[in-house]
Fold:
Amino acid sequence: MVRLTRVQQQARTRAAVLAAAREEFAEQGFLPAKVDRIAERAELTRGAVYSNFPSKRALYLAVLIDLVEQASEPWVTVSPTSRVDALGVFARVWLERLPLVGDAAPGGRLRLRSLDGVFEDERGPAVLAQLARLEALLLAIALERGAPARRVRLAELVLTMLDGAGHRAETAPGFGDPFDVAHACRHMAEIDLEDTWAPPHLPYVAPARTCADAWTAPEGLVDQISGERVELANGLVVVLGASRLGAAEEAVRSAKPGEQVTLAVVTGDPEETGRLVRLRVTDAVGCLRRVFAPEVWQHVRLVLDDDALVASAIGVTDPGDDTESAVSVRDGVIVARAHGRGAGYAAGARRREATS
Structure:
C-alpha cells in the first residue's frame, strides 16, 4: 500500500473539494449552494472543506480560478493589422464565455464567471471597480502599441459593452446576437473620444525621496502577463493594494519610454480579495494573450504579491488593500522612494529627473 505524504494528501483533498464544489455550484448557483452538500459530494467532512477554504465565497472564487486556468492557452496571437481588427478579435474571444442556450442557469453563470450575489458588502464592488481600471489599462497598452495617443477610455468603453453583454446573457439567456456585439466593439475603434492623460491631482503629489539604499530583489516572482520570471535589478517597482489598482496608470505613464515598470498587487485578505484579484487578472490576461503579441507589454510586469515579498523588500511593513508605495531601482540600488497616494508617479518622475 502506497502511503501519501502530507502534502500529497492535502493536494488530493483540495482537488476533491474543488471538483465537488464545481458540481454543486454548477447545479445550484452560488447562493443556494451548501458547504455540507459539497463535503458530502467529496466524501469528506465539513471541517475538511473549511480547512482548505475558509468560506463558501473563497471556495467559489477558487472554482472560478480553476476553470479559467484550465481554459487558458499559451500565446496564440492572430496579429491583427489594425486597432479595429484587434478589438473585433478581442471581443469574439471574450464572448466565448457566454452560456449556450441550452445551459442550465447555474452552470451558465459559472461559465460566465458570474459574481452576482457573491460580494454584497462595500469592499467587493470597490475592488472590482479598481480591477476594471487595471484591465482597461492592460487592454489600452496593447491598443496604443507605443503610440503617444491614450486609449484607456476606448478600452473602458469596450469592456463596459462586453460586461453588459455578459449581464444580459445571465438575466435574459438567448437574447441578442454575440456577433453583433463583436461587430460593435470592432467599430468603437473609430470613435474619437479625445482621450488625454492629465489627472488634476498629480501636481500636488509629494515628491519622492532620493536615496542610495541597498536593494535585495525578491526571487521567484512570475509576471502574470508573460508567464516569465521577473528581474528587478532596474526600473520602477510599485506596490499597490487591491483598492488602489487604478493608480497603476500613474506609474506606467510616469516611466521613461522603454523603462520597466513592475506592478505588484497586495491585499489584506488573500483568501477572498486575493482570489478575486487573481481571478480577474487571470481571466483578462487569458483573453489578451489570444489576440496580442507579448511584446506590446514588454515594459510592464504584473506580479500578484500574495506573500508580500515585494512589499517587504521595498519597506512596506503592513501591506493591505490601501497600500501604495514605490521605489526606483538602478543597477541594484534604490535611488528613490515614495509612499502614499501618487507614489508610483512620484518615484517615476524622480527617476526621469535623475536620468534626464
User: Anything to note?
Assistant: The two ends are 68 Å apart (CA to CA). The mean pLDDT is 92.
